[in-house]
Amino acid sequence: MAKQRYKTYHKNTYKQHDVIHTANRHHIVKQKFMITRGIYKGTSLFLNSDNTTRPTKALVKKSFFDVMQGQMSDKIFIECFAGSGQMGFESLSNGAKKVIFFEKDMSAFANLTNNIRLFDTMLQSRIQHIKDINNQDLYIPIESYCMDFFSSLPLLESLANAESSKPRNKKTDFGVKNGIMSKPFSLNHYRNNHAKIILYLDPPFSCRDGFHDIYTKIVNFIQSFSESLLQKVDVIVIEKMSIAEIDNKLGPFCLNKISKFGKTSLVYFKKHT
Question: Among 19, 81, 250, 260, which residue has the least CB neighbours within 10 Å?
């Protein structure tokens, strides 16, 4: 049984497949995505194999990181509907201090967990070559929660209010979590609680059954944030259907920019300065 790799391009989405030839027939095993920039450029990870999640198009991802270029450093990037985690992994490659994933679908979460392990294994093999400015070993913390993002408020509030952020690697009251991180690591990173948050929300499109009010739920959820959590959040970005309407204000955050890509748009919210 021979194994062959090939690449396809469809619309704005780059997909790489593992293909196994069996009796002269092609069976697609897993689609992959690739980290396209930053220190982990070229790393391949797996997309979820079913239809429960919608991967971000390559053009949309490129535009987001073009807009956010230079703003990712030392930020906590929260991918609120993570799917395969491709935006979070790209953020780590571009300087994010920490990534937190939320994904409630069990199949998608299993794939995400596998991606975290693959990423961690890759990083372990390179860690001896990567040092921070103090010549200490670099760690990249990743937290993943198998839970609905709309149930995450206690966890987000604890992130905003904690005097120190320490690594946790066990189940919590907030859901199943995988605290996988590369070691050795510098505890100085955990003692700095001044990192701002980037919230990236890519929910199922409102045309899907059960999600007609998804953008209203997002607005209401953000408006329930405490003042300390709102102070912690720097930017909110929502990936949405272009035809769907959304408020121009999310609490203290105002519409800053809209980037359209056919049926998909990225909407950026920032605080007034």
Answer: 260
Q: Tokens in use for 127?
A: 């860690």
d(CA 100, CA 150): 14
Residues 207, 241 contacting (CB under 8 angstroms): yes
Strands 141-146 and 98-102: parallel
Q: Write the DSSP assignment of 82-119 as a string of letters.
A: -TT-HHHHHHHHTT-SEEEEE---HHHHHHHHHHHHHH
Residue 264: name the closest of 241, 238, 237, 236 by CA.
241
E strand or H helix that includes residue 52: none
Spell 24-41 as b/e; 16+ CB within 10 A means b. Answer: eeeeeeebbbbbbebebe
Nearest to 152 by CA among 114, 201, 92, 208: 201
- Burial class, 197, CB count within 10 angstroms (exposed 0-12 / middle 13-18 / buried 19+): buried
The lowest-confidence range among 43-47, 119-123, 200-204 is: 119-123
